[in-house]
Amino acid sequence: MTKTPTIIHTVRELRDQVAAWRKDGQTVAMVPTMGALHSGHLALVEEALGKADRVVVSIFVNPTQFAPTEDFARYPRTLNDDVAKLSGLGADVVFAPDIQEMYPAGFCTKVTLGGPAEDLESVARPHFFGGVATVVAKLLLQCGPDVAVFGEKDYQQLLVVKTMARDLDIPSEIYGMPTIREADGLAMSSRNTYLSAEHRDVAPVLYRTLIDTAIHIREGSSIAWALREARSRLSVSGFKVDYFESRNADDLSPINSLGSGPIRLLAAAWLGKTRLIDNIPV
After folding, report:
1. What is the pTM for the complete model shown?
2. What is the domain count for the chain?
3. Any idea what the CATH number is for the domain that residue 153 is in?
4. Which of 57, 70, 71, 189 is buried most, with the most CB atoms less than 10 Å from its CB?
């Protein structure tokens, strides 16, 4: 029998539901999303179902992480389709607040960050992580889950959330799940729907370049050389590269040689009007 999740729109309803589960001794997992759910999101929900008795999926397109020039207005909003996709999985609640519920009149508080929030995404999108950290802190405090599941595709975001939860003593485990990919390697993303047919054919080059760069580094090539080759390859393929970098996988500090610590390759690049991000471990 298909289980349809209950849709909740207010923080009070959410807290009442979680309190009832807690009274019965049940554990709770949360999967924060902005909706437009795809197979990658559904994999996160399946992971959450294995980690707790009850699962809450939040669907909220967060305005504070978009700059005025970005795609907030056109970001896909597909609540009915999202709920239908979740109905076959076993999620218990969809928390779908409106903007007024999350940011009521007079709201004036935000989370500011350093450490893993510096550089990379913050260069192109200096507003981004403040908006993400603020809304995720609110969601974790509103729901109070035992565990919250995030994808590693947004690796810098994952480390920012982990650091924020640690520093603010939010008692939820932050779990990162490996990136879910299309058959040709492209990391699944709601923004992939923006790609033209021509750009969709080219998009997997980003992942293949990450893989080849990791191989070069593991085989002893200079990291600086490997990164230069990667940026050149992407440019020749039609990408406009924001960054293609090697960082310490634990804290995103610069790392320049194999053996200096765990290495993560992180990349962001434009194809036409669509910005793609991806990363892999070396």
Report:
1. 0.93
2. 2
3. 3.40.50.620
4. 57
